[in-house]
Write a structure and sequence with these properties.
This protein has about 280 residues and is mainly alpha-helical. The chain has helices at about 1-10, 30-40, 40-55, 60-75, 90-100, 110-125, 135-150, 155-165, 175-200, 210-225, 235-240, 245-255, 265-280, and strands at about 205-210, 265. Helix content is about 60%, strand content about 0%. A two-stranded antiparallel sheet has the order 1-2. The protein starts with a helix and ends in a 7-residue tail after the last helix.
Length: about 280
């Protein structure tokens, strides 16, 4: 204990150093620990990190905090909240923007929209040789990278990008940027749900009865057609109405048909299911 107090006394700032000395707690050694955390800036740093977690609402808070402190140590301006700071080049801006848009699930609308706004600022940061703003080239590249990580077929991703993309030289406004990011995020989840549905139809194999798959796709198309609202997320809500009873009825009707249907592969089912989704995404004008 005496050795500890000696080290603490040696670490104390000299008089007139300009450092403000926090109030000490009289009882025990709590005052010394609190003083150390305040003087080192740890208290403010942790408070800022927790505020970032509450603001972003990431799906994996622990991983978010680990990444946040890593960026802070490396001197990342994004970790310090300076999203609009100048970055070395497009690859770095794209990587950071991608990090932002993946923080929160799109169902957390406030957090997702806030993160999309931060990504927009990062991607459109100005510099010595470029004007501030997001152009169609960077916007399209970000959407392409979002679609790369997930089960969505390449054909569906390309078709969706064709509906929400802007010309390379065009300035992309924030509402269009947010809409495109949301559409790509919903496509990935829609494809994942379709993949899980095929796993049920195929019993874990790589193929399923074509009659059943066709019946389920027709039921899915009807459910998607019943969706309402301006956001792509409404298609997930509509698809959720395709409950077990409705699926069982469609499958039973298909199996009652006398003709035997050919098998449908997982890839074909995903391609057709995601095509239904993409066809209902409103194109960017």
């Amino acid at each position: 204990m005496a050795a500890y107090e000696k080290r603490r006394a040696a670490a104390a700032p000299a008089a007139g150093s300009g450092l403000a000395e926090p109030a000490r707690v009289a009882a025990g050694g709590l005052g010394s620990e609190t003083e150390f955390l305040l003087r080192a800036g740890v208290t403010a740093m942790v408070r800022e990190a927790l505020l970032k977690v509450l603001e972003a609402r990431p799906e994996e808070p622990v991983s978010f905090l680990a990444d946040y402190f890593e960026r802070l140590v490396l001197g990342s301006p994004a970790a310090a909240g300076e999203a609009s700071a100048e970055l070395p080049g497009p690859p770095q801006r794209l990587a950071r923007a991608l990090w932002y848009v993946r923080l929160a699930h799109h169902s957390h609308r406030t957090a997702f929209d806030s993160n999309a706004g931060a990504a927009y600022e990062v991607l459109g940061a100005g510099g010595r040789r470029r004007k501030a703003g997001v152009d169609g080239r960077l916007y399209s590249e970000l959407l392409r990278r979002i679609c790369q990580r997930g089960p969505a077929p390449a054909e569906a991703a390309a078709a969706l990008l064709g509906r929400v993309r802007c010309r390379d030289h065009e300035a992309v406004p924030l509402p269009v940027f947010r809409y495109g990011v949301l559409a790509c995020s919903v496509l990935l989840e829609f494809a994942a749900k379709a993949d899980a549905l095929f796993g049920v139809l195929g019993g874990g194999s790589g193929a399923a009865d074509g009659r059943v798959c066709q019946a389920v796709l027709r039921a899915l198309e009807e459910a998607l057609g019943a969706g309402h609202g301006p956001r792509p997320g409404r298609f997930l809500e509509a698809g959720s109405r395709l409950g077990p009873d409705r699926l069982a009825l469609a499958m039973d009707q298909a199996l009652r048909e006398r003709q035997r249907g050919s098998a449908m592969s997982r890839e074909e089912f995903l391609r057709r299911a995601t095509a239904l989704f993409v066809a209902r995404v409103k194109p960017v004008e």
